[in-house]
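F.,

This is the one I mentioned.
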């Protein structure tokens, strides 16, 4: 069972400057709820009981968000506004949050390795809150947990992207598994390849389930593009042993690390509220 979800949230969010100069990008709201809370709720739906946050000294607002605030709660007690924090308070009361700081920005692989003391020797999920996912049925991470319970190996969520955009993503290639059209045994994985070099147009998004041996593999990985330690390089080591699956998830994904995707998500959830 996947009990822990790791959130690498130490990045600066420079695409959203000046808004992110003093506000963590994960605290930017889609309507009235910050991005990080959407991710936490998805992890809870998937069965995770501990949220492990890899942060920085600039991200104290994330810790404060998942803590009590007696002044606000007392000021709205007995009013209709109590409903506005009901869901958040339920999270605070029932879920454990742990935090560790990433010392320097050295890529997603390094951020995941930094979280090792919060995870221990067990399989775990990873959510990148920039990738906001929605599905009318089971959430993306819950879908992946169900696959993990069957196959017991690392799993990455993937989606098709235009060929000319492969240089923005980790790209996978492989063979479809068990006569399914949504599950691939990964044989190749490349970080941000030029379109002419990309093995496919199947890109990894910010949802992973990783087995704990990934930590030792990351420790031996040398920095790649931009001097960063890439999680794709570590996953490729597992893939060589047939231990990585790629899953075409059911649902929508919004790239809220980009302004266009952030606006698209805001409009989508606003229209959803109006319909509901």
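My design for it:
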């Amino acid at each position: 069972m996947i009990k822990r979800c790791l959130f690498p949230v130490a990045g600066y969010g420079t695409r959203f400057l000046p808004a992110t100069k003093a506000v963590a990008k994960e605290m930017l709201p889609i309507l009235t709820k910050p991005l990080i809370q959407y991710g936490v709720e998805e992890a809870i739906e998937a069965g995770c009981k501990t949220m492990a946050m890899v942060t920085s000294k600039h991200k104290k607002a994330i810790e404060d968000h998942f803590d009590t605030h007696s002044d606000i709660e007392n000021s709205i007690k007995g009013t209709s506004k109590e409903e506005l924090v009901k869901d958040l308070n339920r999270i605070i009361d029932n879920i454990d949050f742990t935090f560790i700081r990433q010392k320097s920005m050295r890529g997603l692989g390094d951020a995941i390795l930094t979280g090792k003391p919060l995870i221990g020797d067990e399989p775990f999920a990873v959510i990148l809150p920039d990738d906001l996912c929605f599905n009318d049925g089971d959430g993306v991470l819950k879908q992946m947990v169900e696959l993990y319970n069957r196959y017991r190996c690392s799993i990455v969520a993937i989606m098709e992207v235009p060929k000319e955009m492969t240089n923005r993503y980790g790209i996978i290639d492989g063979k479809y598994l068990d006569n399914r059209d949504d599950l691939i045994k990964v044989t190749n994985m490349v970080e941000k390849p030029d379109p002419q070099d990309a093995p496919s147009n199947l890109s990894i998004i910010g949802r992973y389930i990783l087995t704990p041996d990934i930590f030792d593999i990351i420790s031996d990985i040398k920095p790649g593009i931009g001097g960063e330690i890439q999680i794709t390089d570590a996953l490729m080591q597992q893939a060589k042993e047939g231990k990585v699956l790629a899953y075409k998830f059911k649902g929508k994904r919004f790239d809220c690390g980009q302004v266009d995707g952030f606006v698209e998500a805001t409009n989508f959830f606003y229209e959803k509220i109006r319909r509901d």
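The mean pLDDT is 93.

Talk soon.
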